[in-house]
Amino acid sequence: MTAIPAAARAYILAVILCAAVAAAPVALPAAVVPWPTVLLLAALYAGGELPARRRDGDDSAPLGAGTFFPVLLAAALLLPPAAAALVPVPGALLGRVDGPPAGVRRTWRAARLALATWGAAHAYLLLGGERTPRAPDFPYVLVPALAGSLVCCLLLTVLDGGIRATAVGVPPPRSARWGSVPPPAVRRGLSGSAAPHCVHGLAGLMMAVLWGSSYGPFSALFVLLPMYISCWIFAQYHRERAAHQATIRALVQAVDIKDRYTRGHSERVGRASVLIARELSMEEERLEVVRFAGILHDVGKLGVPTRVLRKEGPLTPEERRVIELHPEYGHEMVRGIGFLGEARAAILHHHERMDGSGYPYGLVGHQIPEFARVVAVADAFDAMTSTRSYRRARPVPVALRELERCAGTQFDPRMVRALARALERHGWQTSVTSDEAVPMGPSRTPQSPGTGASHQIRTG
């Protein structure tokens, strides 16, 4: 554990100790432990955990991640809490881990799953659940079973948040602190984590009912089969999505190599676009698409001659017209990539202006697609707040005032206000986007066309 921060070592040891205390009652002389059930469930979970992870190239992708959570929740319904805590331990200790130190990672995973299963079992009992649920208990058994699932979800979320904070130094975001989270953000968080655990909880309940029925434990395996198939399909989607991400990374790297003065700009525009979209309470599915729009907004620069992009000095009118073609070039490059969805329109229209003086089509107001209006603000903001080889960055408050000044003519005021709120809540980190130092002498004229009123704001 020498490579792990001291705070993380203390946190991991504390969680392991808590898990050991939770499981300790099974060692008491008076304890009545159904060991055959414990061993069968532990073997079932371990048998699913071993092939549940596979390595593709350098990445570890889940081949059914969460497929065997119903086994743990069934254990919470069938066993005393201390015995239920033992069920995930063998599978967690034997399963594949993503990197070193493997022993610490496996032990941590075993401890967190043990505590989550123990907590689920206690929640089930506290709400009147009975050991070995029977079919006549429906629908009353649903409440304690779902409560156990939610407690399992809560414990896993809290434990994972603690390890991120201590091992990686990532504090809980301000938006997650008490009294500061808007209701839409709360709903998104609950639907993203609690809903899958409730589904697993229902599957675990079905397993527990079948386990105690006249058909015996073997019949409980049939509950896992459809879940395993659905998770295998999800794993296929996961690998396809990873391929999409790799394609986008390659395109962005190609743009950064070609236009060295805006290196890193695309990634930051994607991040700022997500900040705006979150403030607008966009659905989670759209957040990823708007991030793609921000990241790929300048992909059309691959079609612009390098000598124009890297020209030292003012652009001629003809060269400016060539650069102004990059939104159309970008749209042509990505028009066949179906998963980009609304991002394709944003790539085409992110240089349009609310007053109709933008390009390529001179759209006015809400004729401009919503994602394009988001990306336009994120693009201009990062261009102003990034230090480049031809000029120093503007402070964030100065950049926001300039955006507000141009709101209504160049930018959608709603997007500008959303960015201001997001920055107040989350802050912003800027960095140099060129390998060159900022010159102290006369500044170089930027190679890309201005997008602000009277060309005050210049984007990457």
From TrEMBL:
GO terms for molecular function: hydrolase activity. The keyword Transmembrane helix applies. Residues 262-384 form the HD domain. Keywords: Hydrolase, Membrane, Transmembrane, Transmembrane helix. Residues 240-435 form the HD-GYP domain. Its EC number is 3.1.4.-. The keyword Glycoprotein does not apply. The chain crosses the membrane at residues 63-87, 139-159, 215-235. Residues 430-460 are annotated as: Disordered. Residues 444-460 have a biased composition (Polar residues). Signal peptide: none annotated. InterPro entries: Cyclic_di-GMP/3'3'-cGAMP_PDE, HD/PDEase_dom, HD_domain, HD_GYP_dom, HDIG_dom. This is HD-GYP domain-containing protein.
